[in-house]
Amino acid sequence: MNRIVIATLFASAAALAQGPGGPGPGHFGDMRVMGMGGMRPGQVVAGAPFSAQQVTTETQTLANGTHITNTITSQFYRDASGRTRVERTFSKVGPVSTTGQPKTVVEIFDPIAGARYFLNPAAQTGEKETVTPRTPGTGAPKIARTGNPQATTSSLGSQTIQGLNVTGTLTTRVIPAGQMGNDQAITVTDERWYSPDLQMAVVTKHNDPRSGEIDFTLQNVSRTAPDASLFAPPSSYAITAVTGHGRGAMMHAAPPPPPGAEQ
Fold it and tell me: Which of 75, 107, 212, 262 places its Cα 20 to 30 Å from the Cα of 148?
């Protein structure tokens, strides 16, 4: 995988992290949903190790009734210190199709060592970005946001998913007729089932008539601590240091508002 392709993968992932705010096809998903289950980039969660598959499916329905469905499955690991590893395999990224076999990229975030790695397993190369270490459990800085007067949130109660106790909320945002040239009101909904034990969402469902449906689920959840070797690049990899103005800066830019909170 050359630098152009891998840069496209990470840049596209960064773009996805901006959320499903815009109408139209080709944006594939929401990295906050797709990769993190509602966790903010750079968030540190200590004392809650686990591993799971993250499955995100985006379904778009065209005007002629045609359905376009794309699914991305990632493997997520977190240890007791809050270090994380995400393995993502792409056959295409939005409008960009990778050639040949699907491409796998790995991101490792180590808040203790103050490092973030972007790895290319096929070439056994990677890039290391230095980040400011945070004390485990502090999480990302909270950002005050103005509430959306057009959004309402209601409780869906509690249930058990993947053996985890979760609480559900439903946020509904209505875009009034005429606000963006629409002749009828547009209703956008976000359903979220949150696990206090994992401190992240286990299931999210985003529905926006402008762009389609995005469903995220955690599957095959294991509370066993992952092997420590997963949170550092293999010694055989050639690692290059990069500055925070490169690809890594895009990956952990200031987090966007949650779905349904954008004005």
Answer: 212
